[in-house]
Write a structure and sequence with these properties.
8-stranded antiparallel β-sheet; 38% strand
Length: 384
């Protein structure tokens, strides 16, 4: 591909709509750049315009739940994926849009549908010239875990996924999972999450992690690091809701207790965990860092059937170090009343940026849920 000429808004001559898309929309949203940087030209980050509480184009259930969903008013940008280098389209929804979800299947039929903003342009594919808010129906599966999202139209931005279980007659808030990307003009601060921020941002691109209340930015080498990198800088995460886990001994990261960490850095680690559970299930806890990171931690907490390791108040006094590199868990006791666990340690990162996460599960599989409580927190401070 060579020069695209004439350029937009030249006094003499005429130009196609594609030139406007490339100049007025894609150039401002360009992420991360042109053919010199990427395998395809003008690979933009399409998405929804951010706003107060990110309400634009949000998919929600009807006030009286039925087999419909509502898409809020808002702006989004959708890239043309039919032909490379054809730019992005500005799509505007000026009022609530009600979309119908197809009826559920019978027993043993599970489905996952996608709510999308789709662009159809006859210049590059098909015969339609429009954009639509629509529900794309997923294929039926024998279990909820086997249900997958359907293939989407080529030029589409997914807004939400909708879980449709057998024989349901209404879609509630619990059936809807927000799947929106957000997009800003180059130089703007992008709202995103720790698990969904874009890879290979342009150098200096600042992003705000809405789930951890932190700022990160892109470096020239393509890595992403916390905005405050100097010694003494804190990263902090607090649980904003309870998390329950039952009948599982598989460690997994807590959805809230994760903080980003930089490369080749040393951190002190503190955590204050509030939890409850059954006396059979108890709790396993570990810390997991980025690839090739190292370090250790120990904790003071309620003992789990190990009388020699507890004092008269029931709290452990032996604090052997536990490895971060091998994600080494330790077991602690639980009760129906809330207990606390106090963790301290050291994290040393290598050449891979990433995050430090509190991982946990039950110590023994139990139908009585172990619950990590709101206001538990994880904090790291860079010291070198």
């Amino acid at each position: 591909m060579a020069e695209i000429t004439p350029p937009a808004w030249m006094q003499a001559g005429s130009y196609p709509a594609r030139t406007d898309r490339l100049g007025a929309i894609s150039a401002a949203l360009c992420y991360p750049g042109f053919l010199a940087d990427e395998a395809t030209p003008l690979r933009i980050r399409q998405g929804v315009k951010p706003s107060y509480q990110n309400y634009q184009m949000k998919v929600r259930a009807a006030a009286t739940p039925n087999m419909t969903v509502i898409v809020s008013a808002g702006f989004c940008w959708v890239d043309n994926h039919d032909v490379g280098g054809y730019g992005a389209y500005a799509c505007v929804n000026d009022a609530d849009k009600i979309l119908t979800v197809q009826p559920a299947g019978g027993a043993g039929q599970y489905r996952k549908d996608a709510v999308v903003a789709s662009v159809y342009d006859a210049e590059t594919s098909g015969s339609a010239n429009e954009w639509r808010l629509e529900v794309i129906q997923g294929a039926y599966a024998a279990s909820a875990g086997a249900a997958v999202l359907p293939a989407l139209p080529n030029s589409a931005q997914i807004l939400a996924s909708v879980t449709v279980n057998p024989s349901v007659t209404s879609i509630t808030t619990g059936n809807i999972a927000d799947s929106r990307n957000f997009s800003v003009a180059a130089g703007g601060i992008l709202p995103t999450t720790l698990n969904t921020y874009p890879t290979r941002p342009h150098a200096g691109q600042v992003m705000y992690l809405t789930d951890t209340d932190l700022f990160i930015y892109g470096k020239a080498d393509g890595t992403v690091v916390p905005l405050a990198l100097g010694a003494g800088a804190f990263s902090f995460a607090r649980k904003s809701a309870d998390t329950s886990r039952a009948s599982t001994i598989t460690l997994s990261a807590d959805p809230h207790l994760t903080v980003p960490v930089a490369t080749f850095s040393t951190y002190t680690v503190d955590a204050y965990l509030i939890y409850s559970g059954g006396t059979l299930g108890d709790i396993n806890v570990a810390l997991a860092g980025p690839t090739s990171s190292d370090g250790s931690w120990s904790a003071v907490g309620y003992g789990r059937s190990v009388p020699a390791n507890v004092n008269t108040d029931g709290y452990t006094i032996r604090m052997n170090p536990n490895s971060i590199a091998s994600v080494q868990p330790r077991s602690y006791g639980a009760d129906t009343a809330d207990e606390t666990l106090h963790m301290r340690g050291t994290l040393r990162t290598a050449g891979t940026a990433g995050s430090l996460a509190v991982q946990w599960s039950q110590a023994a599989s139990d139908a009585t849920a172990t619950i990590m409580r709101t206001d538990s927190w994880l904090r790291v401070q860079r010291v070198a």
